[in-house]
Every structure is written in structure tokens, then in C-alpha cells.
Amino acid sequence: MENVILIVHVLLAAAIVALVLLQQGKGAEAGASFGGGASQTVFGSQGSTSFLGRLTAVMAAGVFATSFALAVYAKQKAENVNDAGIPAAEVIESAAEVQQSLPALESEKAAQPESDIPVAE
Question: Which residue, among 71, 69, 56, 57, has the nearest Cα to 21 in the 3D structure?
């Protein structure tokens, strides 16, 4: 279910980008007074502005809804990980024990200095 919501979310985001790029800016209305706006009657007498604006608002609401649903899924996954029953301190201590029990090469032990600060002699 989460994958379906994620795919819908990405498709809605791409659709918003396309719709915003299709819309004309505020300065494009000046050309209509010289006869340039007559070709935009496909969307009605008001042109494509109200149709594309409404469609963009619907897509934005869809992105908001899918974002909210994905946040709910992420919260549920985080709670499930915390409910595993293993406290974090025990995990860190067991990792330190495993690291100390690993064998190290003698050349690696000799190459590591006691301190990073040089000693003046």
C-alpha cells in the first residue's frame, strides 16, 4: 500500500510541475488586446486560466494528502522498530564486545601510536 501511495505522490508532483509550466504568466494577458488571445477558446470564454488553476489546486491537494499518508506510514514503521524489545544501550554494549573480541594483526597494533600528539625529546 505504501508503494502505491508513493507512486501516486510522484505522479502528482510531476503533474503539478507540468501544469505550472503550461500556465501563462500575468504579463501574457497584454497580447489578448492585439488579437493574440482568440486562439485560447478551447477552454471556454475565460481561457485556460481558470481550468488549469483549478486542476493545479486539485493536484496540490492530492500531493498534500499523499504526503500526510506517507508520514503516517513512516511513523508506524518507526514505532515498530522501537518496539523490537532491544534497548539501544544493550545494542551498543554488545557491538563494543564484538569489536574487542575480533583479532587484530600484529602489524596494525604496532603501527598505531599511543597518542596523536608528538612528544618532544
Answer: 56
CB 24 within 8 A of CB 49: yes
Interhelix angle 2-22/49-82, nearest 10 degrees: 150
Cell of 118: 608528538
The answer to whether the beta carbons of residues 59 and 12 sit under 8 Å apart is yes
Its pTM stands at: 0.52
Low-confidence stretches of the chain (pLDDT < 70) are 26-49, 81-96, 98-116, 119-121
H helix runs in the chain, sequence order: 2-22, 49-82, 88-101, 106-111
Q: Which of 46, 55, 47 is nearest to 20 (CA)?
A: 55
**Secondary element (H or E) of residue 57:** helix 49-82
